[in-house]
Design goal:
Blueprint lengths: L1 H27 L6 E5 L2 E5 L1 E4 L2 H11 L4 E2 L12 E6 L14 E3 L11 E9 L11 H13 L15 E4 L8 E5 L1
Parallel strand pairs: 1-6, 3-4, 5-7
Antiparallel strand pairs: 1-2, 3-9, 5-6, 7-8, 7-9
């Protein structure tokens, strides 16, 4: 029975040390707070560490209270090094950067096409009251395709048709603000 006592003491000491280390890291500012998002229908947690655009960096820094570095050279990354992240500017309320649903990522780690560099695409619902939470890049691209099938609106910025999604900047792997996904 001494081994049981030793095991319990060891586990208890490990828990206390772990709590102390995590508390110290959080109080010292060494912890980058995670952000919720969606990838392939599953809720994920990720961190923002860098962005190519100063405004995006400021927004993300204010969102989590942890500095997001400005790295302008990220914007020079070739398209084949980028994956997408869809950021919602209206619709279902949530914890996203604009206080709407969490961001949606494509190309998860471990799959072909994965890269930590993300092209940021802002998306919006024409009729926010008809918005639904999208949890995968496939759902986002289906909603965008439905919009394209209903014709394009003239002008810049957020373009809408019916209750479908619209994207801005134009959804291209070579356009938009970049940030790293960790």
């Amino acid at each position: 029975m001494a081994w049981v006592r030793n095991l319990v003491v060891t586990v208890l000491v490990a828990v206390i040390i772990g709590w102390f280390v995590l508390s110290a890291r959080e109080q010292s500012g060494f912890v980058v707070p995670p952000v919720d998002g969606f990838m392939e229908g599953q809720r994920i947690r990720f961190i923002h560490t860098e962005a190519s655009d100063p405004e995006v960096s400021k927004l993300l820094t204010e969102m989590k209270g942890s500095p997001v570095l400005i790295v302008p050279s990220l914007a020079k990354a070739p398209g084949e090094l980028l994956a997408n992240v869809y950021v919602f500017t209206n619709g279902v309320p949530g914890d996203g950067p604009f206080k709407f649903q969490p961001d949606v990522f494509d190309n998860p780690p471990g799959h072909a096409g994965y890269t930590p560099l993300r092209a940021l695409s802002l998306v919006a619902w024409k009729q926010a009251e008809k918005a639904r939470e999208l949890k995968s890049a496939a759902e986002v691209t289906q909603a965008l395709a439905a919009r394209r099938n209903h014709g394009r609106a003239a002008g810049g910025g957020h373009q809408h048709a019916d209750d479908h999604l619209a994207g801005w900047p134009p959804l291209s792997r070579n356009e938009g603000t970049l940030f790293t996904f960790t």
